[in-house]
Amino acid sequence: MQAKKRYFILLSAGSCLALLFYFGGVQFRASRSHSRRNEDSGVHVSPRQKRDANSSIYKGKKCRMESCFDFTLCKKNAFKVYVYPQQKGEKIAESYQNILAAIEGSRFYTSDPSQACLFVLSLDTLDRDQLSPQYVHNLRSKVQSLHLWNNGRNHLIFNLYSSTWPDYTKDMGFDIGQAMLAKASISTENFRPNFDVSIPLFSKEHPRTGGERGFLKFNTIPPLRKYMLVFKRKRYLTGIGSDTRNALYHVHNGEDVLLLTTCKQGKDWQKHKDSRCGRVNTEYEKYDYQEMLHNATFCLVPCGCRLWSFRFLEALQTACVPVMLSNGWELPFSEVINWNQAAVIGDNRLLLQIPSTIRFIHQDKILALRQQTQFLWEAYFSSVEKIVLTTLEIIQDRIFKHISRNSLIWNKHPGGLFVLPQYSSYLGDFPYYYANLGLKPPSKFTAVIHAVTPLVSQSQPVLKLLVAAAKSQYCAQIIVLWNCDKPLPAKHRWLATTVPVIVIEGESKVMSSRFLPYDNIITDAVLSLDEDTVLSTTEVDFAFTVWQSFSERIVGYPDNSKERWGYTSKWTNDYSMVLTGAAIYHKYYHYLYSHYLPASLKNMVDQLANCEDILMNFLVSAVTKLPPIKYKETMMGQTSRASHCADPDHFAQRHSCMNTFASWFGYMLLIHSQMRLDPVLFKDQVSILRKKYRDI
User: Fold this and answer.
1) Burial of 223 by CB count in 10 Å (0-12 exposed, 13-18 middle, 19+ buried)?
2) Which end of the chain has fewer CB atoms at under 10 Å, N or C?
3) Distance from C-alpha of 298 to C-alpha of 244, rounded to nearest angstrom
4) Residues paired with 449 in a beta bridge
5) pLDDT tens track for 535-551
């Protein structure tokens, strides 16, 4: 009996010791791992608080849109984003200011929190590295004090860096609750699918708007460059990226595979140097990094201190196909972008096989990969604004799944930012996918005549224009947009035609009303006309057949603009705009003009009663990255041209407009061309009977 008691006592004591050791060990380890993370300087932090801080990012690990997001706010108010007012004395880094400015300048922004579907902090959460001068202290208490915080529900937090050297954990230093993360260098283990958004790491020099275009100027065949594979950056003798970067030495051949690293990292790098450092440092200095980038077919992108590296965006811009070596990294915008079309996804464990693998990639595939890098760079990554808007559009697609964009839209020109699903859920309603769907371009057009003078005579140019357009075999209907201050003329004042004529009053009688997406327009093609345009039916027919071959562009009468930033109407072979007073384009551009462009630009146009055609040309060039199409020289009424040329303020205004539009878009979008399309045998000395368009 006594033996049983002693056995029971020993067993109980052993169990207690085991439990004590277990919980004490957990606490000890947690305390050690966070001894460097004391956010509130000078304030004692208990081990329990340290554990809570460490696990804060994982508290909502199971969060998904269905469980941690209130959809009712969006269905009631549409997709509007509220940015908290900046708190007095709170420092904000330039990169985060650019993010907030991009949101506030977008069509999603609202200054009324009661109208918001999504909330973004004005507190700078971008850099949560305690060693960084941009680190914001006491963030936990500041966030919790926000009256709209609601445990992070319907909030979006932007972050580029979390935690600090040497372990670089995912600790944000505050409890994000049920907030979504738009985060760089996020691992697949911590990424919450359909909730978080993986964004690229970008430098503080990354432009807020616009950004440089990709560097692929010509589709060179074969698409091979001087170097097959390149990399040049720090070696990292210790830390996260050290294993992969230390092994690059064995792949470098000094000829077409240049994988250069230097040991010179930090002031005390010599304490950690090995026998190889002297040799690799000397080799490193021989090559210029930019020259390597611009002359390489593939660029290696290994992980750095974190999973993500600046090398990725550099490779995309220079049309150097990224070769990813960062196991466990969630690629940027992976929810919508198919990276297999633009990059080679490698494995850290198979580094030595990379050169032989990429040598077997066919040249056709290499060209396709390089072209896709340029599309993705210009569509989603070339500016902070595009990165932010892509993030917001992805979240919007999750909320309104019934009209969300599919993979084809996101991965094919012009990309998801310019294809607004609110316009239509059918790809055939956009001018960019006819070939993909096997569709023919529209066979009919709607003529929209912009009328601004009273109708006092049956011989006025507007009536002659109406008849000429109505006689076209491709005309489905005519809409007269009455922007005149006088009342609408009686129906009998308009000439009878073989197609319907609809007269509608312009909204507020302003210039931008000519580009509103009127429900009365039943065709995809729009022939936009000023009332004093002089056109024959033959000219209308030819112009429309030209447009059918270039349905994503504006086809029309030329106007000319100087490289930067001057405006001119001199007759030259070089042009970058066409006047919308005699042009054909897809009606989707009416919707983009009304819903994509900011109110400030449209208000400027309306106040000046000028420049609406320039703004439309800027918009279409931004979407297509192509110049318009010129199809003949003389179309506009001489009365209109003479009055404009006699007014010096007219050209001064248009010059100012170009500067303002270029500033908003971030760069000069207009693309110059010298191409003009004329009918076959247009100027040939042959019988008129042999010509199809005899009246031109």
Assistant:
1) buried
2) N
3) 17
4) 480, 529
5) 899 999 999 999 999 99
